[in-house]
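1st attempt posting a full record on here, be nice pls
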Amino acid sequence: GTAALIWNEIIREKVTNFIMNQSKEQRILNFVLQNAVRGDPCSVVDTIDKYCSQKEWAMNVGNEKGLILDKTVEEANPSVALELGTYCGYSAVRISRLLKAGARLLTVEFNPEFAAIAKQMIEFAGVQDKVKLLEGPSQEIIPQLKKKYEVDTLDFVFLDHWKDRYTPDTILLQECNLLRKGSVLLADNIIFPGAPDFLKYVRNSPHFQCTNYPSHLEYMQVEDAMEKAVFLG
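the predicted structure (as tokens):
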């Protein structure tokens, strides 16, 4: 798994970027703009999956774990959802297509280049009315959610950013009183590349009830899993 990632993420990507004079993320966006149906979020998701499984690997949640994400969102039926780690906007589009009328998703991205790509992806999918993209570090944005973004509590949180931020950001969500009894956290990549500190924290905490969903790393046959942690108050 590590060798395949090094090949896809570092060697192959750098060579292609140099030859084509654009980033992989820009190539993903271009493929969507040329091949997906504007205003159709399912078409956008399917087109990204097609590109990343057939042409260039990318760190979206992917189609297999995407079904776990879908099921969790549908069960939580959130009015206010938070995503940490927007990347190209794949999961923001995937989540927002399932939101009920009047519900909203706040998605946080640290990398300005990724944020610019995601903004275009979200608009092309036609879900910009449901999604608000917040640019900056999660540890700065989370404490602003109540006052600046009028969030009372979060019904659903998807953690898919830096793995070493999973635990401190979960603690920060608790400290800022952003979780209510029944709030659902779903964390991606808990086996590969792994988030052992997060698993230890939520599984040993009396405030969370955890469920593990074994799966595979996006677009690969590498073992991975997602962890659902329901806040008990």
